[in-house]
Amino acid sequence: MIAKVIVDVPSSQTDRLYDYEIPEEWIEIVQVGIRVIVPFGPRKIQGFVVDIVSESTFEKTKPIIEVMDVVPILTDELIQLGEWLSEQTLSFRLSAYQLMIPAALRTKVKKEVHLKTERQKISKEILPLFEKENKIPWEQVSKNNRLLKVIHQFVKDGFLEITYQVEEKGKKKTERYIKLASTHLEIEDIPSRAVKQKEVLSYVAQHKEPISVQALLDATNTTRHVLTTLIKKGYVQEIELEVYRDPLAGTNYERTEPRSLTAKQTEVITPIWESLEGEAHQTFLLHGVTGSGKTEVYLQSIDKSLRAGKEAIVLVPEISLTPQMVQRFKGRFGSKVAVLHSGLSMGEKYDEWRKILRKEVQVVVGARSAIFAPFTNIGIIIIDEEHETSYKQEEHPRYHARDVAIKRGQYYKCPVILGSATPSLESYARAIKGVYNLLPLTERVNNRPMPAVNVIDMREELRQGNRSMFSQVLLEKLRERIAKGEQSVLFLNRRGYSTFVMCRDCGYVATCDHCDISLTYHRTNHSLKCHYCGHEEKMPNTCESCGSDHIRFFGSGTQKVEEELTRVLPEAKVIRMDIDTTRRKGAHEKLLTAFGKGEADILLGTQMIAKGLDFPKITLVGVLAADSMLHIPDFRSAERTFQLMEQVSGRAGRHDLAGEVIIQSYTPNHYSIELVRTHDYDQFFKMEMSQRKMGLYPPYVFMVLINISHVELTHVINVSEKITTFLKRQLASDTVVLGPVASPLTRIKDRYRYQCMIKYRNESGLRETLREIQQHYIREMNQGQLQVSIDMHPYIFI
DNA sequence: AGCACGCCGACT
DNA sequence: GTCGGCGTGCTC
Question: Distance from residue A750 (CA) to nucleotide B9 (C1'), in Å?
Fold first, then answer.
C-alpha cells in the first residue's frame, strides 16, 4: 500500500504529493490524517498522510520510517478543506494543514553527529567534541567549514553518522497520582502506631480514581514522608497521569439559564433553527444593533445544536475575546466549552485542541483559527462581529474565516450565522441579493434607547480659540461624570505621544532610517519609535538637518492625551490602554478589572477598547478624532469609520443609566460620521454603495493585490512592470489591472515596495495566471531578495 | 527548505 | 593541480 504524503517542506517545488510505501506491519496503523516521518533525500522529515492508494505510479518508493499519531489529527473533511484553501489563497497545502493543528504539534528536526567507533580511530581535530557524549548537535559544527569537511570524510568511512531526530515542540502535561497497589495488602498489617499511614491509606482506598499527590497531602494534612513509606511498603503506587492545563483555573462561572426571547428574537431564531433541524445549509446575516440581544440568539441556537447531538463553533474577534465574553459561553454550557485564543500558552492551546479532537467538548469559542476546530459533526457556526477585519489572516495563507465557515457549513449542511451591528458592505450586499438570509434585529432588548450622539465641529472650536484637543462640551460632560461618580471612555485611534516631530525652522521631519515613515515620539522613555519595524532612537535635542533647537511635536497620541487630561482635569483618575500599556501578559485584564471596580473615572484607549466593554457605570463615550481613519487612502476608510463610531457608541449606557456619545470631528458632515448620530446603517449602506460603484470597488468587483518588494528600487519597478504587462495580456478585457504604483509605504525595513491591483468580476483563469507569476519568480524569491506576494480579496493596502 | 552536484577562479 | 565559492536542480 502507498501513502500519499504532504511533506513538511514549505516551498512551491515540494508543494505536491509524495508516495511512500506503507510497511506491511503498519497497514492497519497508517491512516489518512496522521503524521508520519519519511525519508526525503538524505534527510528525514515530517509529513501528513492525505490519501492511501494501492499502488504508485512512481518507480522507486521509499518506506515510511515512523508513525507519529495513533489517531488521525486531520479529519477527511479538513484534508479536503486544506486543499481547497490552498487553491483559493494560492498557498502551499502544507501551510493550510499547519493552520489546522496546534503549534505544539509542529515538529522540529534535530540534526546530530553520532560517534560510531572507538575514540582512537578519530582524528585529534574532532575528538574533543565527543568528550562528554557520543553525540553532538549539528549547530556546534555547522559554522565551521574546516570541521565539516573532516566530519564528512569520517561519515564516508563509517566512523561518524549524521542523524535526524524528530521532536515535537509541545508536551503533554502530566501530574503524579496515587492509587492502590495491585498487590493486595491489608490495612490491618500497618502497625497501629503509624496513625498517619493508616489514615492516608484508607483515604486512598475510599476513592476509586487515582488522586493527585498534592490533593492527597492536602486532604490528609500530612507530608510527603508518610506517602513515600506507603509506596515503599507496597500499599500504594505512584503513577503519572496526563492532565490538561486549565487556562481558566480558579475562575468560577455563574450558571446562566436561557432567557425568554423577545418577539423579535424569536422571529430571527426560527429560520436558524429550521436550517439546523432540516440540515439545510444557509448563511444568515444577523443584523442586530448593539444591545439587541444577539448573544442570546447565539446561545440558544448553540443549545439547539447540542441537543441535536451536534457541535458548535463560535468565532469572535481576538480583542473582544475577553473573560467577560468567555464567561457568557462558559456560564451557559460549562465544561462543554473549549476556548482558543492567542493569549493562551502553546501548551494550553494544545490541551484545548485535544479536548476538541477527543470530543470532550462540543462548543469552541475562539479567534480566527478556531474555525479549523477538528469537529466532525458541526451543527452551527457563528461569526460574531463579522465585519471585523481580523477575520482575514494577513500572512500566508491569507484566508478569510468567513469563507472557511461557509465552506464548512456547506459540508455539514448546517447554518452559518454572521452577526454584526454594522455588517461589512460585502455581506450586507449579499444579504440583499438573497445570497445570505438577512435577519434584522433592530430593537434593543427592553426598548432601551440608543445612546444620544453629539457631533462636535472642531473647526468651530478652533475658530472660538479652543486649540486643545478637548471640545468645551466634552470637557464639561467629563466633569459632570466625575462629579456624579460615573465613568467615561475616551477613544483615540493613535498610540504614542505625537504623530510626527518637525523642526519649526527648516520643516525637517524625523523619519525612520529603514522605512518611509515618520517616527512617533514616545514620552515614557523619551524616544522616537517606528511603528512599522520597531526601530527606536533617542529623541534628538537639535534638528538633524539644520541644528536648530526648535523641534516641536505635532498630532497627538494616547500618551499626550493622558498628559493633557491630567492638566485640564487634575481630579480625574485615568487608565490608559494601548499596545504600550497592555503588552505584558494579563495586563489587559488587569486594567479592565481595575476600571470595572471603579478605580478610575476615565478609560483612555485605542482600537482595543472599542469592543466588548460592558460596564454599567459608563455613561459617556468621547471620540477625540473621528477623522483619523477617514483620511486613510483606502476604499474602506468610510466603512471603518462608521463601524468604529457605532462600535464605540455602543459602549455607553448599556445598563440602567442612559448613555451619551460625543464625537469630535473636522469633517462633521461626512456621511460616515453624520449617520452615526441617527445610527442609520441602511442609509450609510446606500451612500457607501454608490461610492463603491463609482470607484469600482468591492462589492461591485473582486480585488487581488500583488505586493512586490526588493532592496533595489529599480528592480522592484522592473518586476512590477513585467507583472502588470503580463496580467493585462492574460486577463479578460473587462478586468482592470492597475499599477504598478509605489505602495503607500514605499519602504519598510530597507525594502522598496510596489504593488499591482486587479479588479475583476468574472475571471475563470485568474488563479492559473497568478500561479504562473508565482512560478516565474520562484528562483529569484528562493534566493531571498525578491518578494512577490499575492493577496486575494485584500484588506490592507499599505 | 536543505542538500548534493557541478562548474569556475585562486592558492599550496 | 585542488580547494572552496555559489548557481542549479531534486527530494517519492
Answer: 32
